[in-house]
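Sequence design from tokenized structure. All designs in this work follow the same two-part layout: the structure record, then the generated sequence. An example of the structure record is given first.
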């Protein structure tokens, strides 16, 4: 079966058992400031697990897009991916362990027709520190299901030290069989939900364990040993506790939170432990083989490179479509990092031309029916991939040469001096993550703390230099400079309206003759975009909006929709300048009562009508991911 067939079977299975099917949430979580990405199927469900009523009822199922940035360094083996789909079903105070275990066994063995002889279970063995009991109840339900298939399921402790011993169900500590977003019980903050879990594993066979090159060949083999023999395919979390100041208390309801890796289930049905050989990767894999002239699976080094490329470019296709545009901060930083790693590993396959766009296209076609909203963003995805690769290839070519020169005298185990790694970054634009990757391959250590110190020194010098040149970015407080300063606020707001809310100020320099404004954006503005920005700014000038200010806390400023530059440098209270109605949220558009709202120290004109006609003279690149506009008033 393909990924798409299994996804459909799963959702139909639970829909037939009274579950409402909900769409996948975005990879960029809404209303959750604790994380950049949706990293698990349960993440969007947390409010409902804590007791809030779900509008679709108390039985829910879905297939959730997930991205885990912490898995980036693990990519290259046969099972880890940064992006994946998590099949999920939830009972919000409805059914509990017995029904869930019964349905899981039925789905795996009857719907997917998996051999129950090759399914193994791990359960929670208890936690004395927090008084959490071992999960004997789940063990009994699993035993019943195995017995119905003619299998006697022996339950055992000490699998990590004593191995399998013909067991079928194994008790593990909270480190293995407890689930919360924060990990083990001791790491959970107050208010966080969690609970014991029962995980399901598939046995690919002992042959994988005893391969002569396996690092596990002399180790005790058990279900959770990561030797490659067993693969986790699903996790039944019994979400029944909430962390409190005294330990754990019961949630309002006993909930079920199931998560099953869709790609891993597909690999199991193929009876092939390599998830990169399932159907969703086939189009992209074939394209890489055509471009590189190298066949997947024939050489371990090439296979590793293939997997990095296949994983990373699938992930960024979905990340870009969900709004994580490549940049140097927040979610966009990870998008950029993944693209750059894919390009570098493409080089290791001998690919010396742009290829990311072609691989992204293969994924867009593969998922167009399952995720039509992603396919609708195909122009955005393709453009971002193409632009990012073109930029980085120039950096990579020069940077690799300088890296070889820099590291030439070092041996395995040596440390690359912080100043030399920072020079590679500062002079040649070589990202520190790429430097670390290349150094690790040579067995050379990168002094990351030293690199960070060099970065801070550089930033301090740059900041001091800028402050010495123009206080607050203004050459003086003359009338013309003040007009241009207010025009800069209008420009900032108009850019966000035309290009998107990813636009943020990265510096300005204003004299009595012109303004210079630096902002985050990764592509050259088209003539049409520049004309739109000019029209919006001149519209605001013609409206003769009043320009007023008020003092408030940073929190209040955010609530009122104000944007700010270098916010952490401001004190407890800030001055917010509004162009238009100070009590309305800003929106740069026709008939908007408030055109701009921004944290600023002033000075400004009293109304926009006195500014004059605004004209963009030049738009150009300032640095990677930063554009610069020079403009005048006529």
């Amino acid at each position: 079966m393909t990924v798409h067939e299994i996804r459909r079977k799963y959702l139909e299975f639970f829909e037939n058992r009274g579950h409402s099917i909900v769409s996948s949430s975005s990879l960029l979580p809404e209303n959750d400031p604790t994380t950049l990405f949706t990293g698990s199927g349960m993440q969007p469900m947390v409010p409902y697990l804590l007791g809030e009523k779900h509008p679709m009822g108390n039985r829910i199922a879905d297939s959730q897009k997930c991205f885990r940035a912490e898995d980036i360094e693990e990519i290259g083996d046969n099972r880890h991916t940064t992006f994946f789909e998590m099949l999920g079903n939830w009972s919000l105070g409805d059914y509990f362990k017995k029904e869930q275990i019964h349905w899981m066994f039925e789905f795996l063995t009857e719907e997917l027709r998996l051999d129950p002889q090759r399914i193994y279970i791990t359960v929670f063995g208890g936690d004395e520190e927090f008084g959490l009991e071992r999960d004997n109840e789940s063990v009994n339900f699993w035993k019943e299901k195995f017995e119905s298939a003619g299998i006697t399921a022996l339950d055992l402790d000490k699998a990590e030290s004593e191995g399998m011993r013909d067991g079928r169900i194994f008790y593990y500590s909270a480190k293995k069989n407890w689930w919360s977003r924060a990990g083990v019980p001791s790491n959970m903050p107050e208010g966080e939900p969690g609970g014991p879990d029962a995980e399901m594993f598939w046995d690919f066979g002992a042959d994988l364990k005893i391969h002569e090159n396996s690092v596990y060949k002399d180790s005790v083999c058990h279900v959770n040993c990561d030797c490659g023999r067993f693969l986790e395919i699903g996790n039944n979390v019994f979400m029944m506790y909430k962390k409190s100041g005294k330990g754990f208390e019961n949630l309002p309801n006993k909930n079920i939170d199931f998560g099953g890796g869709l790609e891993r289930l597909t690999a199991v049905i193929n009876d092939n432990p390599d998830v990169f050989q399932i159907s969703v990767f086939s189009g992209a894999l074939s394209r890489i083989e055509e471009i590189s002239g190298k066949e997947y699976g024939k050489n371990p080094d090439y296979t590793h490179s293939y997997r990095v490329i296949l994983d990373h470019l699938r992930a960024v296709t979905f990340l870009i479509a969900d709004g994580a545009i490549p940049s140097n901060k927040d979610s966009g930083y990870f998008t950029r990092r993944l693209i750059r790693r894919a390009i570098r590993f493409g080089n290791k396959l001998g690919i010396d031309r742009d290829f990311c766009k072609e691989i992204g296209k293969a994924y867009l076609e593969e998922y167009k029916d399952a995720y039509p909203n992603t396919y609708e963003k195909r122009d955005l995805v393709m453009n971002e991939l193409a632009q990012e690769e073109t930029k980085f290839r120039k950096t990579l070519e020069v940077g690799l040469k300088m890296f070889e020169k820099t590291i030439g005298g070092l041996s395995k185990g040596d440390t690359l001096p912080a100043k030399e790694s920072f020079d590679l970054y500062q002079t040649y634009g070589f990202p520190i993550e790429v430097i670390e990757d290349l150094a690790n391959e040579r067995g050379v250590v990168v002094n990351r703390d030293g690199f960070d110190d060099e970065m801070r020194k550089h930033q301090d010098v740059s900041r001091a230099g800028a402050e010495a040149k123009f206080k607050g970015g203004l050459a003086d407080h003359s009338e013309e400079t003040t007009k241009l300063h207010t025009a800069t606020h209008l420009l900032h707001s108009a850019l966000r309206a035309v290009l998107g809310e990813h636009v943020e100020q990265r510096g300005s320099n204003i004299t009595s003759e012109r303004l210079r404004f630096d902002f985050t954006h990764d592509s050259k503005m088209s003539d049409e975009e520049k004309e739109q920005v000019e029209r919006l700014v001149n519209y605001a000038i013609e409206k003769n909006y009043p320009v007023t200010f008020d003092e408030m806390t940073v929190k209040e400023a955010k609530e009122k929709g104000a944007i700010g530059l270098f916010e952490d440098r401001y004190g407890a209270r800030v001055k917010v300048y509004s162009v238009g109605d100070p009590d309305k949220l800003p929106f740069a558009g026709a008939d908007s009562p408030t055109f701009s709202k921004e944290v600023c120290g002033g000075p400004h004109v009293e109304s926009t009508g006195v500014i004059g006609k605004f004209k963009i003279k030049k738009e150009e690149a300032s640095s990677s991911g930063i554009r610069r506009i020079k403009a005048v008033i006529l």
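The chain has 19 helices and 19 strands. We note this feature because it recurs in several other targets discussed in the main text.
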